[in-house]
Amino acid sequence: MTDAPRAPSHAQDQFLNVLSRDAAEAAFLDALRPAPLGVQEIGLDGLPGRVLARDIAAPVDAPPFDRATVDGFAIRAADLFEASAARPVHLRLSPETIACGTAPMLPVTPGSATPIATGGPIPRGADAVVMIEHTEPDGDGIAVARAVAPGSHISFAGSDIARGQTLLRKGTLIGAPEIAMLAAVGIDRAPVWRRPRVAVLSTGDELVQPGQPLRPAAVYDSNGPVISAALRENGCEAVHLGAVPDDPQALETAVRAAFAGHDALILSGGTSKGAGDLTVRVIEGLGAPGIVAHGVALKPGKPLCLAVCDGKPVVVLPGFPTSAMFTFHDLVAPALRAMAGLPPRGAARVEAILPLRLSSELGRTEFAMVALTEGPDGLVAHPVAKGSGAVTAFAQADGFVTVPALVDSLPPGTRAEVTLFGPRADAPGLAIIGSHCVGLDAVLGRLAGRGIRARILATGSQGGLAALRRRECDIAPIHLLDPETGAYNAPFLAEGMRLIPGWRRMQGLLFRPGDPRCEGRGLDAALAALLADPEAIMVNRNQGSGTRVLLDGLLGGARPPGYWNQPASHNAVAASIAQGRADWGMAIRPVAAAMGLGFLPVADEHYDFAVWQDPRDPAALAAFEAALADSAPELAALGFVRA
Amino acid sequence: MTDAPRAPSHAQDQFLNVLSRDAAEAAFLDALRPAPLGVQEIGLDGLPGRVLARDIAAPVDAPPFDRATVDGFAIRAADLFEASAARPVHLRLSPETIACGTAPMLPVTPGSATPIATGGPIPRGADAVVMIEHTEPDGDGIAVARAVAPGSHISFAGSDIARGQTLLRKGTLIGAPEIAMLAAVGIDRAPVWRRPRVAVLSTGDELVQPGQPLRPAAVYDSNGPVISAALRENGCEAVHLGAVPDDPQALETAVRAAFAGHDALILSGGTSKGAGDLTVRVIEGLGAPGIVAHGVALKPGKPLCLAVCDGKPVVVLPGFPTSAMFTFHDLVAPALRAMAGLPPRGAARVEAILPLRLSSELGRTEFAMVALTEGPDGLVAHPVAKGSGAVTAFAQADGFVTVPALVDSLPPGTRAEVTLFGPRADAPGLAIIGSHCVGLDAVLGRLAGRGIRARILATGSQGGLAALRRRECDIAPIHLLDPETGAYNAPFLAEGMRLIPGWRRMQGLLFRPGDPRCEGRGLDAALAALLADPEAIMVNRNQGSGTRVLLDGLLGGARPPGYWNQPASHNAVAASIAQGRADWGMAIRPVAAAMGLGFLPVADEHYDFAVWQDPRDPAALAAFEAALADSAPELAALGFVRA
């Protein structure tokens, strides 16, 4: 049984005590005092990625004995002191031969040589090894035509690792080099910090697990899997318990069970005030001191709830994916890393120029995700403004810019510090900013096959041209109609730019099949019927897009209902109509076909690629042109005609 | 049954065709043509770290419907166009309330508002959401005192991910952001490249597995575990089969079984010519084309053997650990990564100054491992010259310098390119170059507890002072006796340097208990007896060490047998005596005690720390001094007396 639907009301509490980011962090760490949970012994195979819980002393020397580092003969250097090509020295052979694994029984006496293999133990009396290549057979012995420095080709016992030395220090993150050191002194297991076992539970009636069919008004639970993955990246064992509906009894049962059986509990969803305080009420009963922060002056991430109950962290992350991941990495992961015995994650930082103003709200620490491209004056940080509900922003962004609480905006041209998500600022081989088209996916697939990584930022045609003008991207895909000349794209180029011809794609008016205002009619008649009906709701496109220009031309000055719904993609327009939220809009034909919508052709648009005549990377651009030619079959299958 | 011990003889083949590194690589890749092995479907939890084998198209939109991004009321923006604080607009409430997971049934009509929770689907007719914080209860409805832009607080269907778009491209390495994208469109499993299953087999009579007791003349098999770890880091499944002795029958059986059951086979050891050609002969029978390179002009790594048999790579890595890991990373890992579908490992590179000449052999590509410190003119690359048998070099080094085949040396001051092992050049907080002492381990343990990472390079006192003079390190631990004044350390400081007092440690003459030349005698009598006996073999220390200075003073000009054995540590000296390879030498008392050796005191040495009066990082140096004070108990336990 679930409760009645939760929705906002003025009676509910708002966040009464919104803490600053730093105050929330301090309160959380103060109540938690995160520390490793305990020690376990792990065998060599399982050690990579683990953290040593104690210093490790070497129980033996490595190498364990003086050994030969080449194939040759163990000798006394003094015997060869006067050896030369003119006067080779004869040495008699010892009756003993030393292979790897053979303990020598006889000393090397003056005037003698003992054959020895690489890795073999140096016999007593010898103080050097002469390489076999530097000797000749000579009767019952060998002739040596050069002197050898004492100590040559010997690796001395303990010279690499000395018995008793601290081999590896507590807190070391184990990788392959550390495995080599442990194995070399015969250690086959080592004490490491136990991994925190963290329960992950999503809450909300609307959640459906991936792999299941999506109900109306429901969304997939992406937070559960991604929080689990992020926990594993931070040295924890994640136990993903799925989603629990907003039923007080079910929630309480699930939360209590998850809390009891694990070292930490991460919930997501259910903190937004409108979604009710069910979760928060359950947490308050788990243990002392309970909730230490609920509502943090962070964007994204305000609804974050941090609690410590009986020494365990309990966190409610915001339901929206970007908010959830930012708050996780900023405030939760550091505490969990300390519990796992891991050092803080050292985030790399680079400086980059902001091409546009970055606005922020005073009094709130804001994180803005950015994608980096190579500009004429260094790296350029393009905001990836996707909203906190987006899941693609993290994959498209290279890092984020922090706007401090006391700053209200960063003006264009600001050199901002970008905290990178990865270890390096890898600006892509080709930066493509402008209008997106499904056909571009095919071209980029071909380009990837040629080993060139491209990044697309879908800003619309105008945004792309502006970025190209500032040389902040390599290619601007555009489809802009010049109303004066009726020509596409070329009239919009700046001096020194050229067009790589792309393809033609049919734009048209989309409607649900059977709509009597459109079905069986021509474009003009259908449009007239739609505009005449106050119940007919349109869906528009974002400003700066070529489709918007086309639509505005079609509408004259009309502003029919729905005009202000301005999604940023063809697919969003089609989805809105297919789902009945709107009745008509404009998009390209393959998108209409994919969703089974009716289509009235409007314009055979030219989708081309603006570039500079003197590009930053001519080879990468040539590869793009070749990939474009390769993509003919995919483009034809989409109904696009190559220009 | 094992064969008779293998040892070098002039009758054996030398490497007949030593190929250049590039020729060996070309021959190997040409015969192998490495490509992914096949596709498997993996569930979300198992996907991180895997590589997509196909493009993934989004089966649904994300978000799947237009949804509210705040708690508030779905409204028509036109209704609020003229709303202001002076003239709030009244909207009547719709009878419907939209929570997450609730599909709206009623449209928003002019003049009305529908309560909606964050994430709730926008009802038909509404084109914006007004935040609950910006409204007041007003009779049976709400009052709104500000205008709202159309589209406000709505996340449009498909605006993040549009149905049909290429969500993730073939070849993508999956991390948490990609998990979020897959989950958000309901995908719970994805096709990834199958991981190559690689068998790892060590060969050699001398090998003992870690965890087992070490026989005389035997060494631990460190290559097996470390190659397994490196394989896993490069996207392979490693199957470590242990070690097989040098018995032709056993070797053939083991190699054939490992080859048959896996996608690739990596052997280590057994390629050095002196160790015989057993392994190579077995490989020749495995399949065509067989061995493509045996002997490569690489240092370290010459004995490398590369083969391709029936389409599978078969590699014999050199037995010495550093050689094995360099050749693995340079020539083997790239092919295995291609088989795993992984992109080449992008190694980061930095420029650093060489403080000393780096010599190389013409005609051979040489890799020199280096540790980085911060110098006055940027990073300094100190060679970590440990020999190819060392296992600690990889852990101490930050990367390597490549000396091309046609260069015979790089002079001091060269700005060389360093290929980093890790993602970043992390020069440590404190660079300590000079003499090593077991007491220093205790101090560094305390320092690590204060959060400061230090790097020690054990070059001996003189090398440390030279590095300090060039300001390439922060601290030089020294114990140098000035024979003229009888004073320690202070006479050696340059102007502007000072000493941090360390501790006193007793140096003495070491011997096996019961040795009649020493037991029960005083130092002078013992030394006289040892020098008088031509059978008494000493073990010396490396030049530049303080102990060597002390010993040379004790010996006058004498050069007794063993004088040229010059290991670099106290422990190596003690081990040599304990194992009977030498009879006497000099080391500090705790080392003698640890190995149960006799000890005749020679000098109460002062081990101090030379630093600049104007250090690079005063805070880190202060932390070092504090850690030194903290270490009093550990130092006392070692028998050291704080100065």
Describe the fold and architecture.
Chains A, B: Pfam families: MoCF_biosynth, MoeA_C, MoeA_N, PBP_like. Chains A, B: Pathway: Cofactor biosynthesis; molybdopterin biosynthesis. Chains A, B: One of its GO terms (molecular function) is metal ion binding. Chains A, B: Residues 199-338 form the MoaB/Mog domain. Chains A, B: Catalyzes the insertion of molybdate into adenylated molybdopterin with the concomitant release of AMP. The structure is a homodimer of 643-residue chains. By secondary structure, the first copy, chain A, is of the alpha+beta class. The first copy, chain A, has five domains: 21-35 and 195-339, 3-Layer(aba) Sandwich (Molybdenum Cofactor Biosythetic Enzyme, Chain A), CATH 3.40.980.10; 39-62 and 160-193, Alpha-Beta Complex (Molybdopterin biosynthesis moea protein, domain 2); 67-155, Molybdopterin biosynthesis moea protein, domain 3 (Molybdopterin biosynthesis moeA protein, domain 3, Beta Complex), CATH 2.170.190; 347-427, MoeA, C-terminal, domain IV (Beta-clip, Beta Barrel); 431-643, 3-Layer(aba) Sandwich (D-Maltodextrin-Binding Protein, domain 2), CATH 3.40.190.290. In chain A, 23% of the residues lie in helices and 28% in strands. The first copy, chain A, contains 15 helices and 36 strands. In chain A, the strands form ten sheets. A six-stranded mixed beta sheet of chain A has the order 7-4-6-5-9-8, with no helix packed on it. In chain A, strands 16-13-17-21-20-18 form a six-stranded mixed beta sheet, with helices on both faces. In chain A, helix 3 (223-233) runs parallel beside helix 6 (321-339), helix 4 (248-260) crosses helix 5 (278-284) and helix 8 (438-449) packs across helix 14 (618-630). The interface between A and B is large, with 163 and 161 residues.
